[in-house]
Design a protein that fits this description.
It is built from 6 helices and 7 strands; from the N terminus they run E-H-E-E-E-H-H-E-H-E-H-H-E. By secondary structure, it is α/β, with parallel strands linked by helices. The strands form 2 sheets. The protein has a 5-stranded parallel beta sheet, sandwiched between helices. Strands 3-4 form a two-stranded antiparallel ribbon. Strand 1 (about 1-5), helix 1 and strand 2 (about 30-35) form a beta-alpha-beta unit.
């Protein structure tokens, strides 16, 4: 089976990683996916996103920051020696990108954390875990 763990380096996603790893068997594949969010987006006169040099600089910065987080948070140590693939995909919509990557990677299980938002906050802000449950092409494990 292929497990894709979505990480944003929050306490909740680290807990999801730790819990998700417990289900892995030796023959299973593990992919650690982080989709850092761009800070801003420019649009042309027709409302289409523009990818310019500022976005390229932002992309490089987001990838570098994510790589540093993998090191600083000692992600490798939390995996108890298990092999994994690391994928970093900067995006404007992490929720959608997580589901797209799960599809592209042909994941069997998508592992995400839950922030424990109340009903009102979840309604206003949206929930990544709720979105993934509704839109993921595979089973979703939500760690609380």
């Amino acid at each position: 089976m292929k497990f894709v763990v979505a990480l944003d380096f929050s306490e909740h996603s680290i807990r999801a990683l730790e819990q998700g790893v417990k289900f892995l068997k030796d023959e299973d594949q593990l992919v650690l996916l982080t989709c850092p969010k761009y800070e801003s987006q420019m649009f042309d006169a027709f409302g289409s996103p523009i990818f310019d040099i500022e976005n390229k600089i932002q992309t490089e910065k987001l990838i570098k920051t994510s790589e540093k987080m993998f090191t600083d948070m000692k992600i490798h140590e939390k995996l108890e020696g298990k092999q994994y693939e690391k994928i970093i995909v900067p995006t404007f919509d992490p929720r959608d990108e997580i589901c797209e990557q799960a599809k592209k990677l042909e994941a069997d299980v998508l592992v995400v954390g839950s922030r424990g938002l109340g009903m009102l906050k979840r309604l206003i802000m949206g929930s990544v875990s709720d979105y993934c449950v509704k839109n993921s092409p595979c089973a979703v494990f939500i760690a609380k």
